[in-house]
Structures are given as C-alpha cells and as structure tokens.
Amino acid sequence: MAEKTLFQRIMDGELPGDIVYEDEQCVVLRDINPQAPVHLLIIPRKPIPSLNEVTEEDAPLIGHLFVVARQMAEREGIARTGYRTVFNTGPDAQQSVYHLHLHLLGGRKFTWPPG
C-alpha cells in the first residue's frame, strides 16, 4: 500500500490543517505558505497524484473542484475583483505534493505572465 500523502493525513485528522470547507468530494484548506492574501487549496478526497493521472471518469470531480473554487472566492470576498486558479503539475511547475490540488489565489493584483 502506498504511503499517505500530506493531504490525506490532514483529511484523516493525523496532521493539523486549517480546513475552511469540506464535503464528500473535497476539502479546502489555507495554504501554509500563502502566495497571496487569499491562498486556498482545494483538494479532492480521491488521491490522484497529478493532472497527468486524471481520467474521463474524474471529469465530474474536477468540475466540482472549480465550482467549490468559485464558492470559496465569493466567501473570501475576491470574486468581484478577480482571482487565479492553478494546478501545478510536475517538478518544473513546482508541484510539491503529489496529490492533485487546485490553488485559489486572490486579494492582490497579479501580473502576467505568471512565474
């Protein structure tokens, strides 16, 4: 059996995490190293390592993550001014936890291109 990811351990209550929302499909927590005034991680309960492993079967789950992102943006007061959603995939994109998670960032003006 594969070792649990950091996010699985937080969801299982084995490690602390600042959980701000949860439902049967995902958990949302505040990033411990925020890159913006609002920096939330929307994490599916299903342990998918990265976007590269997403299948057609996962399409409803991925859609749900974006619906939750919109709801969290409204809750955090950033929906009207703007926000960014990001999946980091692989080492060159700085993915540090191999459990798919959607970053929701806002509360400041962003530049383009990112990174």
UniProtKB/TrEMBL annotation:
Record PROSITE patterns: HIT_1, HIT_2
Name recorded for this polypeptide: Histidine triad (HIT) protein
Gene Ontology MF: a single term: catalytic activity
PANTHER family the record matches: HISTIDINE TRIAD HIT PROTEIN (PTHR23089)
Domain of life: Bacteria
Domain HIT: 6-115
Active site, renumbered: 101
Listed InterPro entries: Histidine_triad_CS, Histidine_triad_HIT, HIT-like, HIT-like_sf
Motif residue range(s): Histidine triad motif: 99-103
Pfam families, per database record: DcpS_C
Organism this protein belongs to: Rhodothermus marinus (strain ATCC 43812 / DSM 4252 / R-10) (Rhodothermus obamensis)
